[in-house]
Amino acid sequence: MKLKATLLGAAAALALAPMAAQAGRGDSGHLNILYWQAASILNPYLSGGNKDIDASALVLEPLARYDENGNMVPWLAESIPTVENGGVSEDLTSITWKLKEGLVWSDGTPVTSADVVFTANYCMDESGGCQQLAGFADISNVEALDERTIKITFDKPKPFPYSAFVGSTMPILQQAQFKDCVGANAPNCTEQNFGPIGTGPFVVDEFKANDAISMSANPNYRDADKPSFASLTFKGGGDAASAARAVLETGEFDYAWNLQVDPTVLAEMAKGGKGEVISAFGTAVERLMVNMTNPDPALGEKRSTLEGGPHPFLTDPAVRRALSLAIDRALLAEVGYGAAGKPTCNVVPAPAIYVSTANDECLVQDIAKANQILDEAGWMPGPDGIRQKDGVRLSILYQTSTNAVRQDTQALVKDWWRQIGVETELKNIDAAVFFGGDQSSPDTFQKFYADIEMYTNLFDGTDPEAYMGSWKCSEIPSPENNWLGSNMPRYCNPEYDALVEKLAVTAALEERAAIVKQMNDMLMQDGAMIPLIHRGSVSARANSLQGVKLNVWDSQMWNVADWSRAE
Strands 564-565, 387-389: parallel, antiparallel or unpaired by DSSP? Predict the structure, then answer.
């Protein structure tokens, strides 16, 4: 399952004939990848959807990334800069990266430090609505020292200086291709966003938004014998169950991602003998995001923005606490996830040093207590049983992407909330639309035209600094940033923003962990979100597919250049 391509002597190569396909570029033929959430863009700076980030990772690459064990490894960079090797200044105010020698884009032109500088400026232009802006926090300057050397300077000491250009969400863009796509024009560059020129193992041949992507091996990829596959199809659409079936039972596809399928159904499919289910736990949390602003359609363009005012009842801490206590997370985990799910009350579920125990009240469902909390807060049942106060009814529009497990979760939560006098309308949206970056659509998770929305998110690597910066006031999606901020709840707390700043200058791991716990607890206790399940990543690979190393700390496509077909 986890064989890695190695250079073998002639005798060994003959002895291991099934791995001979790894000897040359394109020898393994065609690769079929199935993501039931279809990709809508190939630019991770304009999308927070994992399906878009993973599709982009086939083409675009960062300076460094995280391996399957969470270790940072150089990618386009020669090495990882540290204080010890002189790459990080002793005062922690700068980091200097050096590109590998001889790197070229897929069009054959050289990759230079100017491309890295351009990418930084591209994302840091606030009018562009860059989805990864938090990763550039505290950067005052990015400069090219020579053709291969980039110096990033911070406006304060940065004990963890590895956010920018590390991980699948922070790749390098080609300046020549994207030079006219800066600022407010960034989302309008369809040709560039659908067909980026990259350094990765594959190039885009055809992109059909919300459907399928055809790619072929990058003829200028830096490893002459990779990728082993000559071409691939990155297919989107359908649902998680059909994706699992296509690998495990019918063998139509080689790899299927994010198999959010009833665990008993998945186990039965695996008996088909065509493939294998693979899983691992990282930082993914299925959560309910709570809209702190008013999503009333009558507000027009001010809908779900700070300008539209606070939410009529979700800003009441009693309501948020009651909603959380009414949920049986253990049952949700058992029914929907099996061994691949654990109840959680935190948005940071790992690594262990960052995990808080201050919110564990939510681990035990307590309908009676939830009702008591609402009674004491003055929310009393009306004639129809729905609680109300001062003319405001507890009526929730609860949206998520279309998926059997998510719809089962919605149905259970709706019933539990009914038992505490809360009315719930359920809405499910095609995943390609919900997680897409189409500014014209009213149904994206960024626009959040609902009261509650549910999805999973996670962070690259093992340090949550950039991730925790996602909930700063400045990260709130709005028309001004093309609805591409990462603060979906519209949570704005100066005390939280101050902790973001404090974390950025704190070096000791124990102290950093204490700050992260404090930030996590603030988000939980202020009710910006209601965590449900610490999710393991579950995917499936064909038995013939070699080299797959499921990575929960980076993109699942992180090492696709090493994949091959066993004969």
Answer: unpaired
Q: Please tell me the predicted confidence (pLDDT) of residue 69.
A: 87
Burial group, residue 206, by CB count within 10 angstroms (0-12, 13-18, 19+): exposed
92 or 432, which is more confident = 92
Q: How far is CA 342 from the centre of its chain?
A: 19
The superfamily CATH assigns to domain 281-462+528-536 is: Dipeptide-binding Protein; Domain 3 (3.10.105.10)
Distance CA(340)–CA(150), nearest Å, equals 41
Copy the structure tokens of residue 124.
């840091």
The confidence band for 421, taking pLDDT boundaries of 50, 70 and 90, is very high
**CB contact set of 547 (below 8 Å; sequence gap of 6+):** 2, 3, 4, 5, 22, 228, 559, 562, 563, 564
CA nearest to 215, candidates 234, 198, 192 = 234
Whole-model pTM?
0.77
Is 25 in contact with 222 (CB distance < 8 Å)?
Answer: no
DSSP track, 33-94? EEESS----S-GGG---HHHHHHHHTT---SEEE-TTS-EEESSBSS---TTTTSB-TTSSE
**In the chain, what are the domain boundaries?**
281-462+528-536
Distance CA 267, CA 262 (A): 9
Cα–Cα distances (Å) from 194 to 104, 214, 292, in that order, read 20, 11, 33
CA torsion sign for 285, 287, 290, 291 is: positive
CB 276 within 8 A of CB 282: no
**Is it the case that residue 557 has pLDDT exceeding 90?**
yes
Residue 545 CA to residue 275 CA, distance in Å, equals: 9
Per DSSP, the three-state class of 114 is helix
Strands (E), 201-332: 202-208, 212-217, 231-236, 255-256, 275-290
Nearest by Cα to 305 from 317, 291, 316, 318: 291
